[in-house]
Amino acid sequence: MSLVLDAAAQDLLFREARTANSFSDEPVTEEQVQAIYDLVKFGPTAFNQTPLRITLVRSPEARERLVKHMAEGNQAKTAAAPLVAILSADNEFHEELPQLLPHFPQAKDAFFSERPVREQSALVNASLQAAYFIVGVRAAGLAAGPMTGLDFAGVQKEFLDADHTPLMVVNIGKPGENAWFPRSPRLDFDQVVTTV
Ligand SMILES: Cc1cc2nc3c(=O)[nH]c(=O)nc-3n(C[C@H](O)[C@H](O)[C@H](O)COP(=O)(O)O)c2cc1C
C-alpha cells in the first residue's frame, strides 16, 4: 500500500525477477539495448558523472575471446546467452563533466584532477549505474545474469584499456530451461535498518 508503483511492475523489476543462468535463443536487439540505456541513463550519479561504459559482445569471435576469461562455472552460460555486456568504469569520466554538469563545469578541475580520486568515484558511481542497468534489463522483459567470476585483468587487456576498469559481465536474454537456482533468502528490514 505504501508503494505507488503498480504491483505488476514491482514483480517485474524485483519480486518475480530472477538471475538467469540459462537463456532461450531469442535475440536481444540493438533497439532493446538502446531503450534500456535511454531509461537507465537517468539514474543518479555524483556530479552527474555517469562513468559506466558498456561493451556489447555480439560477434562469435569476441564471445570466444570473452568466454576464456570467465570462471569455469560461468563459461557455458556466457557462451550461450543471446547478448553479453561488459560493464566498466571510465576513470577519465571527468573529460565529459563540462557536458554533463553545464552549470558547474569547474567541478572537473576542482574535484577530479587526481586519478586516485577519479578511480574511487568511478567505481562507486559506475557500480550504481550497473545496478540501474540490471533493473533496466528487467524493465525490457528480459533477464540479466550478472557475473564477477572472471579474470578481470584478462578482460581489461582483451577488451578495454588502462583507463577502463571492468566491473562485471552481464548475460542478457529471455530465460531458458531451468534458468533459476532456488531463490535464496534476503535479510529482513530489522537486520538491515537502524534508526537513530
Ligand atoms: C555483481 C554480481 C556478481 C555475480 N557473480 C556471479 C557469478 O560469477 N556467477 C554466478 O553464477 N552468479 C553470479 N551472480 C548471481 C548472484 O548469485 C544472484 O544474482 C543472487 O544470488 C540473486 O539471485 P536471484 O536474483 O535469482 O534471487 C552475481 C550477481 C551479481 C549482482
UniProtKB/TrEMBL annotation:
Transmembrane segments: none annotated. It comes from the Bacteria. It is an enzyme of class 1 (oxidoreductase). GO terms for molecular function: 3-hydroxypropionate dehydrogenase (NADP+) activity. Keywords: Oxidoreductase. InterPro entries: Nitroreductase, Nitroreductase-like, Nitroreductase_HadB/RutE, RutE-like. Gene3D superfamilies: NADH Oxidase (3.40.109.10). Residues 17-174 form the Nitroreductase domain. Its EC number is 1.1.1.298. The keyword Secreted does not apply. NCBIfam families: PRK05365.1 (NF003768). This is Putative malonic semialdehyde reductase RutE. It comes from Streptomyces lavendulae subsp. lavendulae. The gene is rutE.
